[in-house]
Design goal:
A two-stranded antiparallel ribbon has the order 1-2. With 468 residues, the chain is mainly alpha-helical. The chain has three domains: 147 residues, no CATH class; 211 residues, no CATH class; 57 residues, no CATH class. The chain is 55% helix and 3% strand. A hairpin with a 3-residue loop joins strand 3 and strand 4. It starts with 20 loop residues before the first helix and ends with a helix.
Length: 468
């Protein structure tokens, strides 16, 4: 798996300030490759949104919150008529408090079921389960669940961004369930909610859970306390059992939600649909060997029928990645030894089967691929254009020098120090842990290093298949 991203709003425009590339991506390449990956996946898949159970849990929590907002019989108690909510169920603060409370309720339901051995449940992948286990071990059924949008109610640090509702927000926004302010009543949202009600919330295990959770929340919200609180032992056991039953494993969730999610995400359509078919074939292969990312893309582009514009998205990745991978390798060479010169780097580059023309040739392929550059905008486009200019420097030594300058600028934008620098005598000083040396067999010319969300797509599909 490549660099994981922690993006609050994932890659509509890349932002170094909220990305884990700060510590793992010295050339800022994640901004580039992820923009081409998201042109295919349309934010349905990301490094932090790739689990069908969490996808479905988030949609359930939003559907219940929507019901609470719209149900006139749900009346806020005296305490909730003050402060942030001011009695307004349609406020963003109220909706966020509902989402966080439901997330925590589910997580503690799993922790309790696991600890007490009452019901089989797969805890791996449940966000916050480690913290919930510790709190459960210390407090058991006296654990408190607070209704509030503020940090005091959070199980996770920065839960509004890094919990289920934060990580899976952008996919649901892209699918029109709501906008960034959690407005459920937009005309564009009506068809998708209608489909969800028909396919998920009327006949699956979510139907029974919805009734129990609605009754629980209605009672909680009517209390006079400005921060209604429940200790775990006061939560109805039937509600806890229904939560566990509905979300027991990703595969169990995939078993009843597969057709719905394929329909609303379109993951089986277009360029992503071609990748989907390749991964489905891979899963049924008796060889039990995962294809490399490059192999997945090469197989996908041969799928028929595939519209020209969708095929182009796959072609762009096939043309782009060998160039990005060679840039990555050149920096890795500079990071793999201390006190070497740029001439030393050029010699080692040659020993790996590269020439002074390698980067130039890869850059020319990118330049000459119609439409490729137009797909990138903003930060990804700026970085890619700069790297293409570097690749057209006349020799490896100058390419390395310019790449070093580029790296320094990337790090300065992040408010960090560069990982390496030229010092007296033309020596490279590496200020981080040195990288392992590689060889031509491990990194043949053009070998890929970025994944373009294929591992995450596999993860989602493994749940959607509904098998153990």
């Amino acid at each position: 798996m490549g660099t994981p991203g922690l993006l609050g709003e994932y890659l509509t425009e890349f932002d170094d300030r909220i990305s884990s590339e700060l510590n793992l991506d010295p050339l800022g390449l994640q901004a580039i490759w992820s923009s081409y990956g998201q042109a295919i996946f349309q934010n349905r898949i990301s490094s932090i949104s790739n689990d069908v159970r969490n996808y479905t849990l988030n949609l359930f929590n939003h559907r219940l919150t929507k019901a609470l907002v719209e149900d006139e019989s749900v009346v806020l108690g005296r305490g909730l008529n003050r402060q942030s909510y001011s009695g307004k169920k349609d406020s963003q603060a109220f909706k966020q408090a509902c989402l966080i409370h439901l997330e925590n309720l589910f997580t503690f339901a799993v922790a309790a079921a696991e600890a007490e051995g009452r019901e089989a449940v797969e805890a791996t992948g449940v966000l916050g389960i480690g913290i919930a286990r510790r709190e459960w071990a210390a407090q058991k059924r006296s654990v408190k669940l607070i209704f509030s949008h503020q940090a005091k109610s959070h199980l996770l640090s920065r839960q509004a961004s890094l919990g289920v509702s934060g990580r899976y927000k952008t996919p649901l926004v892209q699918m029109e369930f709501f906008n960034s302010a959690y407005d459920y009543s937009r005309p564009a949202s009506t068809p998708v909610w209608k489909r969800a009600d028909e396919q998920l919330f009327s006949s699956t295990p979510l139907a029974a859970l919805m009734k129990l959770a609605h009754a629980y929340m209605k009672a909680l919200l009517s209390e006079a306390d400005p921060e209604p609180t429940r200790t775990f032992d006061k939560v109805p056991p039937r509600l806890l059992s229904a939560f566990v039953a509905a979300f027991r494993t990703p595969q169990a969730v995939g078993g009843y939600s597969r057709e719905f999610w394929l329909a609303v995400t379109g993951l089986d359509q277009g360029s992503r649909g071609a990748l989907y078919q390749v991964l489905e074939d891979e899963s049924s292969s008796p060889r039990d060997v995962l294809l490399q990312t490059e192999q997945v893309f090469r197989a996908a582009i041969k799928r028929k029928p595939l519209a020209d514009d969708e095929k182009a998205k796959l072609r762009y990745v096939l043309k782009l990645e060998p160039f990005l991978a060679e840039l990555d390798l050149l920096l890795q060479l500079m990071l793999s030894a201390n006190a070497q010169t740029l001439d030393d780097v050029a010699t080692r580059w040659s020993a790996l089967g590269r020439t002074e023309r390698t980067l130039n040739e890869r850059a020319t392929i990118v330049d000459d691929t119609p439409g490729l550059m137009k797909q990138a905008v903003g930060t990804p486009a700026e970085r890619l254009q700069t790297l293409l200019r570097i690749a057209h420097e006349p020799n490896t030594k100058e390419q390395a020098r310019k790449l070093l300058d580029y790296h320094s600028k990337i790090m300065r934008v992040r408010g960090q120090s560069p990982w390496l620098r030229l010092v007296a005598g033309g020596k490279l000083k590496v200020d981080v842990r040195r990288r392992d040396a590689t060889d031509a067999d491990t990194r043949p010319v053009g070998a890929w290093v970025h994944h373009y969300y294929i591992p995450q797509f596999r993860q989602l599909l493994s749940g959607l298949r509904g098998s153990a």
